[in-house]
Amino acid sequence: MSRCPERGRPPRGGWWRLAVLLVSVSSLPAVTALLEGLYCGTEVCYDVLGVTREASKAEIARAYRQLARRYHPDRYRPEEPGDEVSAEKFLLIATAYETLKDEDSRRDYDYMLDHPEEYYQHYYAYYRRRLAPKVDVRIVILVTICAISIVQYYSWFNSYNKAINFLVTVPKYRIQATEIAKQQGLLNRPKEKGKNRRTKEEIREQEEEVIRDIIKNKIDIKGGYKKPKVSDILLCQIVLFPYYLTRYLAWYASWVYRFTVCREEYGDEEKLYIIRRFMKMSQAQFDDLDEDTKRTFLEKRIWIKENYEVYRKEREEEMKLKMATDSKMKRYRRWMKNEGPGRLTFADD
After folding, report:
1. How many CA atoms lie within 13 A of 272 on its CB side?
2. Where is the signal peptide (predicted)?
3. Domain region containing 102
């Protein structure tokens, strides 16, 4: 009857098998770290180029140039019949070089070799780098803002020129500009003689230019047709936003301290500001009002909420009465009632 081995001791020859198993396990990280579809696939990029992991950039570049000259599809000549190398070999060499020449890509690849168990993170790092935009996003945003600002300024400038061209044709402004030009001596010039004498067409063009310049300088156009300013474009607004925000916060803190904490009396400027807020008007719209209207606001004390409600109701009643008695509004209401914009009729030819 054969004797059984003692409990807790491996059978004969077991130590040798255990040593082989340990050696195999120690080599697993280098094998399992090679994932299909990432970098060089199942090949080690360092082995593809024939360099070590401690190789410098110069050594990696030198090895790539040597292999590229040797295995380029246009230059490769097999030494033995049947020893054909397809373009996949050259593509593998190029992939290895692209992986190892960049510091960040090489760092990710070395981390994959050293930590094969984190294969999900390796896929994420690889495709994040490949799919990331090659151009800095900040540059793209800056170029986009600059392009929008240029289009914005060009559009405003065209609108301003259209407004000036229209005002030049209005008799009221044209007569006023002509009188100003005569007072400044821009149109009362002595007649020219000799070679320097100009034609009637040239004189007329010069007079038109003088009138146009006076209208430009004397008339303050507001709203969408106002004269464009560089400070109003998007790029300048973004750059100056911290300055505007700081000014607003300082103004708001001063307002709270003066009129809420210290209980100071409102001045005319503060009263008009409150009135403008009640009317929900922009600063440009409020500035277009004449001084008599603003003085009326102050006399009626409509910066007080109760007074403003009374004033608003009075204005609504006046507007209703005007619409009821105005002949144009009567015709408009009759047209809306009988025909309206949505009614289909046959045209009488």
Report:
1. 16
2. 1-33
3. 16-131
